[in-house]
Amino acid sequence: MRIAFIGLGAMGRPMATHLLAQGFDLRVNDANTDLADTFGDAWASSPAEAARGAAVVVTMLPNGHIVRDVILGSGGVADALGEGGIVVDTSSSDAGGTVALGEALKEHGISLIDAPVSGGVPLAAEGKLTLMVGGTDEAAFATAQPLLEALSGKLMRVGGLGAGHAAKAINNAIAAAIFAVTSEGVDMGARFGLDPAALLEVINASSGRSGISEGLFPSQVLPGKFALGFGLPLMAKDVALADKLRDELGLKLPMIEATHRQMQAALAALGQQADFTDYFRFNEQAANAG
Ligand code: NAD
Question: Which of 116, 187, 202, 274 has its CA 20 to 30 A from that of 133?
Answer without folding.
Answer: 274
